[in-house]
Amino acid sequence: MRIIPGLMASALLLYVPVGLADDGKGYGCDSVNFSQEVLEKMPNAKVLCRGVVERNGGVFVHYIGKVVGKTADTVTIEFLDKNSKPISRATFKPAANQMVAVEKQKTKYMDVKTGTTLDFYIASNRWGLFGSPGDDAMTIVSVEQL
Questions:
Q1: Is 4 inside a domain boundary?
Q2: Which residues of 113-136 are buried (b: 16+ CB within 10 A; e: fewer)?
Q3: CA 67 to chain centre
Q4: Count of domains for the chain
Q5: What are the CB-based long-range contacts (under 8 Å, 24+) for 75-84?
Q6: DSSP H helices in the chain
Q7: Which one, of 11, 12, 30, 8, lies nearest residue 21 by Cα?
Q8: How much is the pTM?
Q9: What is the pLDDT of residues 34-46, one digit of tens each?
Q10: Is residue 34 part of a domain?
Q11: Cβ-proximal residues to 134 (8 Å cutoff; 6+ apart), any chain
Q12: Confidence of residue 103 (pLDDT cuts 50, 70, 90)
């Protein structure tokens, strides 16, 4: 009789909520209900999705972006699909001291080199670009589809 509770406990430890997990195949992306605002600003939101994270009661969609340009106060990235093909381009203005992890080192966005790939997040219910689901939103200057 002790075997059954042990098996149940083991099964619970192995449980991963598939709707929010990402095993490289994008599980969870198809189930995201994007707001109309997000879809208007980024029509390729689902195609570019790399995974879904739930934080602080919100759903954040994970994206990969490659830095393709910078000015004195903006960074331009290309959002990459699962084949590393650029689909959308966004220019954003991070806060002066806003940091990002590059090869496990905290770096200011303005110090990131062109060609570097970074993680980004967009909340499913409102337009905004985040370096991490817990970060402050960055000001988005422009978005275009490629």
A1: no
A2: eeebebebbbbbeebbbbbebeee
A3: 14
A4: 1
A5: 75/109, 75/110, 75/112, 77/118, 77/120, 78/146, 79/44, 79/48, 79/120, 80/48, 80/117, 81/47, 81/48, 82/26, 82/50
A6: 3-14, 36-41, 45-48
A7: 30
A8: 0.78
A9: 999 999 999 999 9
A10: yes
A11: 55, 56
A12: confident
